[in-house]
Amino acid sequence: MTAAAETRDNPTIGTDQIRAINRTAAFNRWAGIEVERAESGEAVLTLRWREELGQYAGFLHAGMIGALIDTACGFAAATLVGRVLASNCQVSFFAPAVGERFVARARVVKAGRRQVFTAAELFAATDTEERLVAGGSTILMTAQ
Amino acid sequence: MTAAAETRDNPTIGTDQIRAINRTAAFNRWAGIEVERAESGEAVLTLRWREELGQYAGFLHAGMIGALIDTACGFAAATLVGRVLASNCQVSFFAPAVGERFVARARVVKAGRRQVFTAAELFAATDTEERLVAGGSTILMTAQ
Amino acid sequence: MTAAAETRDNPTIGTDQIRAINRTAAFNRWAGIEVERAESGEAVLTLRWREELGQYAGFLHAGMIGALIDTACGFAAATLVGRVLASNCQVSFFAPAVGERFVARARVVKAGRRQVFTAAELFAATDTEERLVAGGSTILMTAQ
Amino acid sequence: MTAAAETRDNPTIGTDQIRAINRTAAFNRWAGIEVERAESGEAVLTLRWREELGQYAGFLHAGMIGALIDTACGFAAATLVGRVLASNCQVSFFAPAVGERFVARARVVKAGRRQVFTAAELFAATDTEERLVAGGSTILMTAQ
């Protein structure tokens, strides 16, 4: 079943509902993860850098990179199929994650009845540029 | 080259040095990640549950699960080959991560000249039992 | 649900049934994949080297490495839960896959109602030794 | 270093050279993997269906899906940086791989000095349509 077909079968969940879900996650509030947009199988998250988010060399911690990619993928899936549970998340680290803020962009690659496959990229941003620092994908189970 | 061979070529790094590295990571201090043991290609981390670490349903956040597995794998590799940089981390989520504390156990599977392959499991623990909740692996580049 | 619990709920499938399934796969017959053992959440496959299985440098082709790991994982899962369908397979290549024959050993890590998580290693063997050349894992969906 | 920068440092390898490499791989000749195009960090492979390539249900075998994705990714990387060696390949299976022929499209996502990250999709094709059946990614080490 295509993402488009899924949308027909499910009440669409949009940016407002995803923002509400985001606020219920204590970790997301602590870290400062914000939902810029979430609809139609896509989600964009932003995170402002601060020191508590860093690993030993002062780059964004791999756990935070994973959290942003996993969360963006989960929200992208939720816009199409509602409640989901992650089975697997894999992240590749392309370059040191150094920036004033970070932007995660996720999209649904394939939405089926039982599983949703998603992919995401993470960019480190300053006022003047965006740089690709990581990419990944998740597999999610639909609620049954 | 086997892990054993690598150890001969590198000054061994043990629990005390890994604990010192762990303290230099702001994220690890905030989250409360502690090094129980790190030596000879193995590392064991612990994390006490608290609410800020949770996702929307109150389970340990996938980002924290990834952080524990990625960090444990990195420390296990560092005991054999010193400075490393993660290329990829993949995590499978077996069961809801609910517990009083969490224990990540990582080991080096293959240490080469340029790359180190590691694997880890994450357990949710109470006073009386440990339950496997996630597993994963990382690929790390050695410093050159 | 644990693997042990799953076994109680399903008629066990053993080596003979898995060998019969293996013979129905045209690719497995062509390649010469043989089932040494498959029962209780574990499977061991063997493959004799011949030139058609090689990549440009004469090592076992990555596709064959993946085929062995994916097939061993699928058979290990099938012994516990019957019919399965792979969602994802990931393989890490530790060393050049050169040998007279290859042995893949897979095991179920976690068997749930909807998903089965497995892991496997691939060894290159001669008459006198076995050498670890690759490792991987798969996620499988149960039939529903 | 960007893919563009890499291209400046390396003599570009194009479709003709990649086709020559493809012909030296015995497995690729047996399976019938053909190089439609390979240049500038991209590669397109095709494979005509025949029965020996099938698993037990008559779909393209997961090993062949992995072989196509891994090979396409390796060729895409080789067009930018020359000789490479795969560290990891991960494939997600979106739908049964049934078709008259299969088309794998790969691209370099990030080319560094030591590592190249790639991604690919696999399509099942008939005369009238193409359907996405699998997607994956590989991490490759550059020759040193």
Structure, described:
- The structure is a homotetramer of 144-residue chains.
- The first copy, chain A, has 144 residues and is an alpha+beta fold.
- A six-stranded antiparallel beta sheet of chain A has the order 1-2-4-5-6-3.
- The first copy, chain A, has helices spanning 3-9, 15-24, 26-31, 62-81; strands at 34-39, 42-48, 84-93, 101-111, 115-125, 130-142.
- Chain A is 30% helix and 40% strand.
- Mean pLDDT of chain A is 92; it is low at 1-8.
- At the A-B interface, helix 3, helix 4 and strand 3 of A face helix 3, helix 4 and strand 3 of B.
Element layout with pairings:
The structure is a homotetramer of 144-residue chains.
Chain A: H1 3-9, H2 15-24, H3 26-31, E1 34-39, E2 42-48, H4 62-81, E3 84-93, E4 101-111, E5 115-125, E6 130-142
Antiparallel strand pairs in A: 1-2, 2-4, 3-6, 4-5, 5-6
Keywords:
homotetramer, 144 residues, alpha+beta, 4 helices, 30% helix, disordered N terminus
Biggest β-sheet description of chain A: 6 strands, antiparallel
Of all chain pairs, the largest interface belongs to: A-B, 33 and 33 residues
Shape of chain A: globular
Instruction: Indicate the multimeric state.
Output: homotetramer
Unreliable stretches of chain A (pLDDT < 50, length at least 5) are 1-8
- Helical residue percent band of chain A: 25-40%
